Task: structure prediction
Amino acid sequence: MDLSWLLGHAKTTFHHHAKPLQLRTKKGSDTTLLEICETATPPCHLNSLLFNGHLQTFWTAVKPQDIPIYYKRHVFEASDPAYAGTFTVDFVVPPYEDTDASLPPRTAHFSDEAFNSIGSLDTKPMLITLHGLSGGSYEIYLRHVLVLLEKMNWEACVVNSRGCANSAVTSTILYNARATWDVRQVVKWLRKTFPNRPHVEQISKNPQIDVETVRNIKYLHEFDRHLQGPTWGYPTENAYYRDASSSDSLLAVKVPLFAINAEDDPIAAKEAIPFEEFKQNPYTVLCTTSMGGHLSWFETGGGRWFAKPVTQFFVKMAEEIDCLAEDRGDGRIKPKSAETASKWPDFDPMRRKLQMHIEP
Result:
């Protein structure tokens, strides 16, 4: 009988394609995405007193930590008229004195002059970070990763979902779990700039939304039923969940992806993890741990284990890998010949019930 969990030793398991993606290192040798993920992942030794997912997750709230990451914020105007409005991006910067009390801690707006001169031809790696549901750049789990990369001379920014992190909602377009247009705009802007690297008022304008009902919401599914559904045209909250799920999208991934999930996560439950989709796509690897809770993984001493494999994966991909050694397509089943292809059913993992305009 394995009693190592009594010491806080969690089991790590990797779920992947039978033939993982081949990668070529800068030294000219070959490796695989699986090997990169495995070598980036240290043993998962957690606080033995926090011996299940609920305790790990609970500890996030009762044991606050402070990791001093400083940000400067810029408000972007959406470039796609189909999704008009504004959104904010917080850039990691060196410490400074004059922060803005109306924004999250250690955050202030860029001056126009400072932002207009932000461009650079340097070759520093640039990390674009997304936060979780209703969070923002201030989230502690983000800062655990950012502080390590900052010490390694990386640049980083956080794209805040509309209305999050004290950002104003300036249109009826709100957060959607499927929403990628703001991130797309930031990616395009960063590539160009660094070539080598009072919401109620707006919501009430939507005739499909009963503001008083929204004010009295108690549970998350009620928020999705009375706000998300009417905003985007979903008839029920479950229709939204099915449509916004990333499970099918995994099959279309063509950029090396390393995912980490605790099997005892009380929020993102093991039963909802798309194990088979990870096994189908050679561009993806999933690491599960037997313990860790929801975005927790507290170690003895207060550190958080997940920051180690995440940062090491980024560093290895940025510093050791030169290019893909092959083009493996994606996770979809392909016909074996052109003749068969004309009659082959077409499964598009990115096809959704709600049709959205995506700017090319």
Residues 21 and 59 are 37 Å apart (CA to CA).
